[in-house]
Amino acid sequence: MKNLFHHHLPGWPGTHIGSKFYVDMSALMEEQGKDYSLKTAPFDARFPNQNQTRNCWQNYVDYHRCHKIKGEDYTPCDYFKRVYQSMCPNAWVEKWDEQREAGNFPGKI
User: Fold this and answer.
1) Beta strand segments in the chain, E
2) Where do the structural domains in the chain lie, given as residue ranges?
3) Kindly report the CA angle at 83 between 41 and 59, in degrees rounded to 5?
4) In the sheet that 4-6 helps form, which strands lie side by side, from edge to edge?
5) What's 38's DSSP letter?
6) Coil, helix or strand for 101?
7) 32-72: per-residue pLDDT in tens?
8) Do 54 and 90 form a contact (C-beta atoms < 8 A)?
9) Distance between CA 37 and CA 67 in Å, rounded?
């Protein structure tokens, strides 16, 4: 299974679909001789429904709350980051990051 995402970088393996270029990350990693694994967020019984919006939000908040409480070097916090990066649309994360920086993020961190 190929991991494709939208970027156009000269010399990278990939394919054009319409006007977009999708990079084949598995081929790229093989070219560079690196091992990789793709993981999705594990099942969380707190969020049993198909709609995972709340799960995305909660893991984003938990990641930043964890770093606030435990410090930036506390690596177990990275679990929450991996989950929210897997589940949340990039546009949401960018907006929330901007809101945190501006001091008007609606969540309690």
Assistant:
1) 4-6, 14-17, 20-24
2) 1-38, 53-102
3) 125
4) 4-6, 20-24, 14-17
5) -
6) helix
7) 666 666 677 777 787 777 788 888 999 999 999 999 999 99
8) no
9) 25
pLDDT for the residue numbered 11: 53
- Name the DSSP class of 75: G
Give residue-wise pLDDT tens across range 67-97: 999 999 999 999 999 999 998 999 999 999 9
What is the amino acid identity at position 81?
Answer: K
- Beta bridge partners, 6, equal 22
Tell me, what's the pLDDT at 6? Answer: 42
Domain spanning 53-102 has what CATH number? 1.10.10.140
Rounded to whole angstroms, how far apart are CA atoms 85 and 108? 19
C-alpha to C-alpha distance for 95 and 105, rounded to whole angstroms: 9
